[in-house]
Input
Amino acid sequence: MLQRLGVDYIDLLYLHQPVGDYKGAWHDLEKAVSEGKVRSIGISNFDYNDRVFSDIVDSMKIKPAAMQIECHPYAQRKYWQEKLKQHNIVLECWYPLGGRSSHGELLMDPVICGIAKAHGKTAAQVIIRWHIQEGFSIIPGIDNSKYIDENIRTLDFTLSDEEMNAIRALDKEQRFFNMT
Output
């Protein structure tokens, strides 16, 4: 993998899902860390239940540096926010804007759009800024290069406490991607 990527090491490598021999896979990732091939390891989609999370966090030598889960204003994943804080694991949000399966629902939310209008920003910029101010790591998927510049322009404004609370009040644990 390192040779294909043309690098000497990988900063952060994720175990994508708790399927198959995920404990064995985690041991292999720990080995890659000990060999200096990987600096940090994390888990993704281990929010299926507490057992799969605990299998890694409570019984392995190296604890995850981060956990990727779907997280956005409609599914703020408060249970996981607290659990990850207890273990000093960074929450990295995928689908931070709701993803394609949301059909733009978050981007049309009247609360978010009202805040965006007040700042002269887009709804996406407000949502990204909310994630940043909450202390989350985010990975918005981008297939249009003009959105990269738009996303960068989330660092030139700040949401007020009232605006942050208004977005927090949108939480209804509504996920847009539901895995079987």
The longest strand covers residues 38-44. The mean pLDDT is 94. The radius of gyration is 18 Å. The first helix runs from residue 2 to 5.
